[in-house]
């Protein structure tokens, strides 16, 4: 009898999952916030501890926003072919937030956590592309629709290239141009980890003797190709994508995945040139990594607010 009641309760999980998550979050706040405040008060002179407190606050704001949206999709799972990709994309918000906070607290080990996040970035791009293709192929054959459309030409700075023929060639080139990033990023991440373990990675060092500038160049080129193909794909299917309010979705993907990468590159250049050291009066190279992590937390929180304010994945 007891086993049957438990089974019935689990079958009705849609009725209690949201109140359960709210209660769990309240308990987390009640326990974790006082601990963070006490830890911060005991280390008033330590700037990194103060930054950890602020970063922890951002994480505690990010988690309920993203988890609530994920739960809403799971409870109202009416379009699995679309929502499974939406849920996977939404998971990048807590992953980014926790990654930034962990990197803030343990800057020396952040490269290993960053590597996992970077692999998930590639997975997010894959799911976003699959989401767009499934949406566009829901009622019509995308390739056939594109064949009847006017030719879409390349945009600056590749406007001199021969345009891709509308239809199969256009979809094929856009898809592979976007998805190549899902292959390149994990490969460069693994290479970076191997180089770090052998002491030749040289994070924030643009010397030709270390691997860091080469990895940045490869990732930069791969991201440019993916972003360009994504914009071109949107340009060709703007009318069909209009009902799903694509602007917020494109902004989120670009801001969280692409723009945060370029911000990281800019920060590394500023660290290498000594600009951050002069502004914040930092002489210890280890503390420069802490300052870089602080700025990573700020961009992650900005992207969370951007996603929440536009509600891009709520139907």
From TrEMBL:
<feature type="transmembrane region" description="Helical">
    <location>
        <begin position="255"/>
        <end position="278"/>
    </location>
</feature>
<dbReference type="GO" id="GO:0016020">
    <property type="term" value="C:membrane"/>
</dbReference>
<feature type="transmembrane region" description="Helical">
    <location>
        <begin position="211"/>
        <end position="234"/>
    </location>
</feature>
<protein>
    <recommendedName>
        <fullName>Transmembrane protein 184C</fullName>
    </recommendedName>
</protein>
<dbReference type="InterPro" id="IPR005178">
    <property type="entry name" value="Ostalpha/TMEM184C"/>
</dbReference>
<keyword id="KW-0812">Transmembrane</keyword>
<feature type="transmembrane region" description="Helical">
    <location>
        <begin position="87"/>
        <end position="106"/>
    </location>
</feature>
<feature type="transmembrane region" description="Helical">
    <location>
        <begin position="20"/>
        <end position="41"/>
    </location>
</feature>
<dbReference type="Pfam" id="PF03619">
    <property type="entry name" value="Solute_trans_a"/>
</dbReference>
<keyword id="KW-1133">Transmembrane helix</keyword>
<feature type="transmembrane region" description="Helical">
    <location>
        <begin position="53"/>
        <end position="75"/>
    </location>
</feature>
<feature type="transmembrane region" description="Helical">
    <location>
        <begin position="290"/>
        <end position="309"/>
    </location>
</feature>
<keyword id="KW-0472">Membrane</keyword>
